[in-house]
Amino acid sequence: MNDTNNEVKIISYDPQYKEAFKALNEEWIRTFFKMEAGDYKLLDNPEEHIINKDGHIVFALLNNKPVGTCALVKISDQPLKFELSKMAVSPEAQGKKIGYLVGKALIEKAKELGAESVFLETNSILVPAIKLYEKLGFKHMPVSDSVYDRCDTQMLLEFNI
Q1: What is the C-alpha separation between 22 and 40, in angstroms, rounded?
Q2: Does residue 89 surpass a pLDDT of 80?
Q3: Strand order in the sheet with 8-12
Q4: H-type alpha helices, the chain
Q5: Computed from CA positions of residues 135, 12, 9, 94, in that sequence, does the dihedral angle turn out positive or negative?
């Protein structure tokens, strides 16, 4: 018997979850690092800096409560490139493959839009996150400029379009 209340639902951005986008991300960032200007920019104004610039945000709902989120931020048009950004999963929902589900949903979205690649920035102390990104198909690349002090790892997923 399948209990549908425990089913994780992936949904596209809805303004009612704007605060959850910030809260979920702030929770993990403050656990390991400190909030930076780039965090506030995206987390305080997701519509302005992500959605209205042809980006996408998804949420994972568990029992209709947002427990995970991730953003796809458009980097360039020609060629079309995105950054996978602001992936967060509530501690209470970890271990339910939510990071994989939100990441996979946005990778599929990037493919559907005809993107050439998706890149991401992270930190080497976030081993579970890096393993997840590798599972999603991302490959390590040399680190170049980042707006985040905490970034010491960059990864790239290229599509064979």
Answers
A1: 9
A2: yes
A3: 8-12, 56-62, 65-76, 81-89, 117-122, 153-158, 139-141
A4: 18-32, 37-44, 46-49, 98-112, 127-135
A5: positive
- For 103-122, how does the pLDDT look when each residue is reduced to its tens digit (9 = 90+)? 999 999 999 999 999 999 99
Distance (Å, whole) CA 9 – CA 61? 5
Distance CA 92, CA 96 (A): 10
Q: CA 9 to CA 19: how far, in whole Å?
A: 18
- For residue 77, how many C-alpha atoms fall within 13 Å in the half-sphere facing its CB? 2
26 contacts 44 by C-beta, under 8 angstroms: no
Name residue, tokens 């209340």.
5
Whether residue 66 has pLDDT greater than 70: yes
Q: Judging by beta carbons within 10 Å of its beta carbon (0-12, 13-18, 19+), is residue 76 exposed, middle or buried?
A: exposed
Give the angle 28-75-148 at the CA atoms, nearest 5°: 35
153 Cβ neighbours under 8 A, 6+ residues apart: 121, 122, 123, 124, 130, 140, 143
Report whether pLDDT(64) > 60.
yes
Cα–Cα distance for residue pair 25/28, rounded to 1 Å: 6
pTM over 0.85: yes
